[in-house]
Q: What sequence folds into this?
C-alpha cells in the first residue's frame, strides 16, 4: 500500500472524527438549551437515547468491520510468482512495528505471508491493508503455544522490543523468547523451513567493547531489569544454534540495533517516539540521566532490506544490522528539537537502570557477506517519522476532545 493511500485513509479518519465531534457538540449545545426548558426526566431521557445511539453506532461499526473482512479490499498490486519462486512465509510478530514493514516487503515481492501475532504490542491496523488479499493470512495466536502451519521460511520477530514494554511482564518476556523460540524452531524442523531469529544489540548488554562486533560476548546483568529481554534473546540465540547443530535446522540470526520509523506506537516508550511526540506536543524532551550515553539509529526500511538479504543468504552466524553513525542522547534531543521546532525544552530526568552507555554496531560482516549497509540518512528518516507522528498526534487529540465531549454530556 502506498504512503499516499495510507495518508488518504488517515485523512479520512481524521475528517470522520471531526464530523463526529461537531455533531456531538451540536447535540450537546441542543441539550444545554433544552435543559433550561425541560424537566430533569426529559434530560435523562435524551441522555439515554444518546447512549443507545452510541451503542447502536458501535454495533454498526462492528458489522461494517465484518463486512470489510468478507469483501476483499483493494490491496496494492503484487507480482504473480511461479511456484518455484513463490514462498510461504511465516512472520511472528508480523503486526508489530518492524514485522508489518517486513510483511509489506514480502507481500510486494509476491510471496504468501502468514502473520501470527498476539496483539500485545502489535496492532491490526498495521497489516489491515492486506486483509482479504489471497496471499495473506492473519492469525491471532501466542507463540508460547505450538503452531502448526506449512511454510518455507520463518521470520521470528515476536517479542515486545521497547524497554518499558518488555519490563512490564518480565516472566512473559522470558517465556516468549524461550518457549516461543522453541515452538518456532520445532516448527522449522518439522516443515524444513529456514528460520531467522530477530535478535538484538541488547545481547551485548552495557558493552565494554566499542564498537560492538559479533565476536564480542557481551556484558549483561543477569538479574537486572533488562535481563528478561537481554538474557531472553541470548537464550533464544543459544536455542537457535542448538537446533542448527543437533537438528540441522537452517538458521539465520540478525542482531538488530536501535530502529525507528512510521508505525512506532505513540506510547512505544523508546527514545525516537518519546522525543518526537514530546516535541510535537510542546512538552519537554526527557533525557534519561546525563545524556552522554550513545545510540545509533537505523531507519526501518534499511532494517527490512537487511533482514531479507540475510534470509536469502547462506550466512548462518550472527550478524549485526544497524547504523554505525553514533549520537549522544543530548545531541539527538537537539536534532529532534531543531527539526520540529516549538516551545519544548530539553530536560534531564532520572537515569534508567542498567542503561547501556555506548552502542554502535560494527557492520563489517553485513557489508562483506550481505553487501548491506544503511542507505537512509538520519535526517531523511526522521522527516518521514515526524510526518507519521504528526498525523498520530492529530488523531489522538481529536479522540481526546471527542471523549471529553462525550463525558460532559
Ligand atoms: O524518553 C527517553 C527514552 C529513552 N532515553 C534514552 O535513550 C536511549 C535509547 O533508549 P531506547 O528505549 O530507545 O532503546 P534502548 O537502546 O534502551 O533499547 C533498545 O535497544 C535495541 C533494541 O533491540 C530494542 O528496541 C530496545 O531494547 C537510552 O539511553 C535511554 O535511556 C531517553 O533519554 N529518553
A:
Amino acid at each position: 500500500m502506498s504512503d499516499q493511500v495510507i495518508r488518504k485513509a488517515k485523512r479520512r479518519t481524521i475528517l470522520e472524527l471531526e464530523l463526529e465531534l461537531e455533531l456531538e457538540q451540536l447535540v450537546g449545545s441542543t441539550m444545554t438549551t433544552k435543559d433550561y426548558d425541560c424537566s430533569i426526566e426529559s434530560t435523562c431521557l435524551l441522555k439515554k437515547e444518546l447512549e443507545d445511539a452510541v451503542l447502536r453506532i458501535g454495533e454498526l461499526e462492528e458489522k461494517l468491520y465484518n463486512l470489510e473482512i468478507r469483501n476483499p479490499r483493494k490491496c496494492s498490486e503484487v507480482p504473480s510468482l511461479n511456484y518455484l519462486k513463490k514462498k510461504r512465509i511465516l512472520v511472528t510478530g508480523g503486526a508489530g512495528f518492524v514485522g508489518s514493514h517486513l510483511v509489506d516487503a514480502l507481500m510486494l515481492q509476491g510471496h504468501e505471508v502468514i502473520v501470527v501475532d498476539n496483539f500485545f504490542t502489535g496492532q491490526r491496523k498495521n497489516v489491515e491493508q492486506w486483509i482479504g488479499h489471497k496471499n495473506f493470512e492473519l492469525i491471532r495466536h501466542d507463540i508460547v503455544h505450538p503452531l502448526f502451519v506449512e511454510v518455507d521460511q520463518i521470520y521470528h520477530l515476536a517479542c515486545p522490543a521497547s524497554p518499558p514494554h518488555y519490563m512490564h511482564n518480565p516472566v512473559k518476556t522470558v517465556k516468549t523468547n524461550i518457549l516461543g523460540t522453541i515452538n518456532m524452531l520445532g516448527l522449522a524442523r518439522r516443515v524444513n523451513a529456514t528460520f531467522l531469529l530477530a535478535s538484538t544489540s541488547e545481547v551485548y548488554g552495557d558493552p565494554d567493547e566499542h564498537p560492538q562486533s559479533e565476536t564480542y560476548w557481551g556484558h549483561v546483568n543477569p538479574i537486572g531489569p533488562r535481563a528478561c529481554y537481554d538474557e531472553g534473546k541470548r537464550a533464544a540465540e543459544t536455542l537457535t544454534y542448538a537446533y542448527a547443530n543437533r537438528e540441522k535446522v537452517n538458521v539465520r540470526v540478525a542482531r538488530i540495533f536501535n530502529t525507528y520509523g512510521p508505525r512506532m506506537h505513540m506510547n512505544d516508550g523508546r527514545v525516537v517516539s518519546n522525543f518526537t511526540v514530546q516535541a510535537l506536543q510542546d512538552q519537554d524532551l526527557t533525557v534519561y540521566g546525563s545524556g552522554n550515553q550513545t545510540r545509533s539509529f537505523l531507519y526501518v526500511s534499511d532494517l527490512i532490506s537487511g533482514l531479507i538479504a540475510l534470509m536469502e543468504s547462506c550466512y548462518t552466524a550472527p550478524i549485526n544490522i544497524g547504523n554505525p553513525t553514533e549520537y549522544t542522547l543530548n545531541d539527538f534531543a537537539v536534532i529532534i528539537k531543531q527539526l520540529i521546532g516549538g516551545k519544548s525544552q530539553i530536560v534531564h530526568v532520572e537515569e534508567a537502570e542498567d542503561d547501556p552507555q555506548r552502542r554502535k554496531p560494527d557492520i563489517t560482516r553485513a557489508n562483506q557477506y550481505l553487501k548491506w549497509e544503511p542507505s537512509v540518512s538520519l535526517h531523511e528518516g526522521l522527516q518521514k517519522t515526524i510526518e507519521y507522528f504528526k498525523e498520530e498526534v492529530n488523531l489522538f487529540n481529536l479522540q481526546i476532545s471527542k471523549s471529553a465531549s462525550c463525558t460532559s454530556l
